[in-house]
Amino acid sequence: MKVGKLLAMILTVSMVVPVCACKPKDESESESSSKETVKVTTKESTATVSTSASREIEPTTEPTTPSEVKDESEEPLVVYGYVKDFKKSISSYFPDTQIDYVFIEPKDYFTALSEALQNGEKKPDVFMMDKDHLQDYSNGNKTLGIEEVGISPDELSDQFEYTYKASVGAGGAIKALSYDLAPSAVIYNRALAKTYLGSAEPSEISAKVADWDSILELARSVNLNTEGTIKLVADRQQIHSIFWAAHTSSWVKDKKIAVGSDFDKYFLIQESLHAESLTGEKTVGSEEWTQYINAGQAVLFFGSLKTAADVIGYVPGHKEDIKEETRSTETSADGTTETTEEIPETGWSIVPAPTATYDGGTWLMVAHTCDKKATAGQFLRTLTMDKTVMTDLAVKGYFVNSRSIMAQCAADPNFACDFLGGQNPFAILVPEAEKIQIADDPDVNRCAENEIRKLLSAYLAQDIETFAEVKEQFIVGMEELLGLA
């Protein structure tokens, strides 16, 4: 990866950090739970906040009547997180703020966080949040809306819309801001794609995986041509989240459950994949699933760059070893010989998935007990809005929450990566992030998806005999859960 003039092409302000194209290794999986404190000179800070709790999700240009938000404590800002190297960012980006960073192992994080918020001696002021728990904490009473810490929705115009819409609580307030995004794509094995899909070129593969009918036919073709030894995908589970990301309308219309054609289509696809043994039937994210992909038994998987790092060892700027050339000699009818040389396809590439979605990300939330609201607000603002900070993070490999910065990264050839066959991954992922939508009612949507999972398992196990019964049970079950019956 070229890095010579990387920063200049992203941002015009000067930087005081070294230019680096590789994201630092996250040590959170290898180190035990610990508490890290960054303490330097304290600066008293203040900010402003709207006096009325706005239910608007999208930034507006309407005038606000601000009131003052102040720190009520001189103690350090306490930040809970599950990323070990986050303390380095705190030291670099907040040199004049006293911060206690409490690192907790990911496997223990949510138990420890819940206990700390409830009755811990050292309650967090700010804490990290992942995709899976975001809605629970957004709807609960343990977190503050961004306006309560001096941040107006007007300030979010350069952020990717889905990131703050995903954190809207039951009362309409935005409860979290994301600093590290994870939009998804199709990530495919170039060698397997060339052999079994007919091409390794992204432009051609993109057309082949553009919709679910095409993906189903590809799965059948790969299975047939390899006699079942290689599958298009290792599991059916990832298809669930990708497929239902396209369902953004309400499941409830006129106080009745609305079941559209996508419900029928989803069950048809899943039934076909299962009945015809078209996937590896592995548990997504498991060690077995990862080994299956790395052993070359699955042509592709769905995921973000973070998923690619975990599964296939993706590293920004990685250089592939030069492969030995394959030579072949052919003799024509007139007796002349011709030698051809071919370099085997290696590595991976990415193309858009049938539906734009995300498989992770890291949000920052403010605890309801926070007594340093001004500092907490500035903490969120710096990591999700400060151009200098976000540019530094982008150069290190983060997908930051700035539409303008990421658009420039997408257009910058310096981000081309040999690991991905020379592709600039941001050129694929930025347009996808712009298209991601959040369901009208995330709680109802999540409830519906859980019901669909349970019914699908029962249907494939033949505990439910007909699809008509599946649909009937879904409607009845949802009506009961939502109190519509």
Distance between the termini: 59 Å
- What is the molecular shape? globular
CATH class of the largest domain: Alpha Beta
What is the tally of beta strands?
16
- Major sheet: size, sense and barrel closure? 7 strands, mixed
How many whole angstroms does the radius of gyration measure? 25 Å
Count structural domains.
2
Low-confidence stretches: 1-5, 11-67, 320-327
Return the average pLDDT rounded to an integer: 85
Q: Write out the CATH superfamily name of the largest domain.
A: Periplasmic binding protein-like II
- What is the CATH T-level topology of the largest domain? D-Maltodextrin-Binding Protein, domain 2
Helix fraction?
Answer: 25-40%
| SSE-based structural type | alpha+beta
List the total number of helices. 18
Strand content: 15-25%
What is the second-level CATH architecture of the largest domain?
A: 3-Layer(aba) Sandwich
Secondary-structure topology with pairs:
Layout: H1 6-10, E1 34-38, E2 46-50, E3 66-70, E4 77-81, H2 86-93, E5 99-103, H3 106-119, E6 126-129, H4 131-139, E7 143-144, H5 161-165, E8 176-183, E9 185-189, H6 190-196, H7 202-208, H8 212-225, H9 237-244, E10 252-253, E11 256-257, H10 261-275, H11 287-294, E12 300-303, H12 305-312, E13 326-331, E14 337-342, E15 348-351, E16 358-367, H13 373-385, H14 387-395, H15 403-410, H16 425-435, H17 442-460, H18 467-481
Parallel strand pairs: 4-5, 4-6
Antiparallel strand pairs: 1-5, 2-3, 6-16, 7-16, 8-16, 9-12, 9-15, 10-11, 13-14
Helix pairs in contact: 15-16, 17-18
